[in-house]
Amino acid sequence: MRTVRSKGQIRLPRKVFLPNLPLSGGCQCGAVRYQLNAAPLILYFCHCTECQKQSSSAFGQSMRVSAKDLTVSGELRAFSRPGASGNDLICEFCSACGARLFHRRTSYTDALNIKAGTLDNTKWFKPAGHIWTKSKQGWFEIPPDDLSYEGQPETYGPLMERWQQMLGRQA
């Protein structure tokens, strides 16, 4: 993990101005829609090669939420793949257009990650940090204030604390 310092001082994280709830999103064809009725637990960007393949981009945008706060309408399909941690990852996508919307680890059922680029409004995004940076694209520069992990963090605690600070809440 990288320590964020400026001239010997610890710099405060950037602020996130969360839009009014609920947050809504869906797949590309509109057959699946979802609504998030509480603030996300965290937003981070993942630079692993699997997220690069899935997103067809430089990184995946993962927004962890409490499962109880998410409502989904439409037909989802799923597949399972091994994650870098060795735990299986369940990947859920629209059965009509194939757009990936969610993923969750089999080891926890109370939370899941929304593929955050599927939200209707993404202009407010600022990640708490970046994971799997050892496989990031060479042209992408991690902002100096962001937390950064070369691989899978042992715990998401520091990222979650940073996210709470970014929301203006005490961690």
Question: Secondary-structure map with pairings?
Answer:
Elements: E1 5-6, E2 9-10, E3 23-26, E4 33-36, E5 42-46, H1 49-55, E6 60-66, E7 70-73, E8 76-82, E9 88-94, E10 100-105, E11 111-115, E12 129-131, E13 147-148, H2 157-166
Parallel strand pairs: 5-12, 12-13
Antiparallel strand pairs: 1-2, 3-4, 4-7, 5-6, 6-11, 8-9, 9-10, 10-11
Brief digest:
This protein is mainly beta and 171 residues long. The protein contains 2 helices and 13 strands; from the N terminus they run βββββαββββββββα.
Task: Tell me what you see in this structure.
- This protein is mostly beta strands and 171 residues long.
- It has a domain of 117 residues: glutathione-dependent formaldehyde- activating enzyme (gfa) (Alpha-Beta Complex).
- Helix content is 10%, strand content 34%.
- The chain has two helices and 13 strands.
- It has an eight-stranded mixed sheet. A three-stranded antiparallel sheet has the order 3-4-7, with no helix packed on it.
- The N terminus is likely disordered.
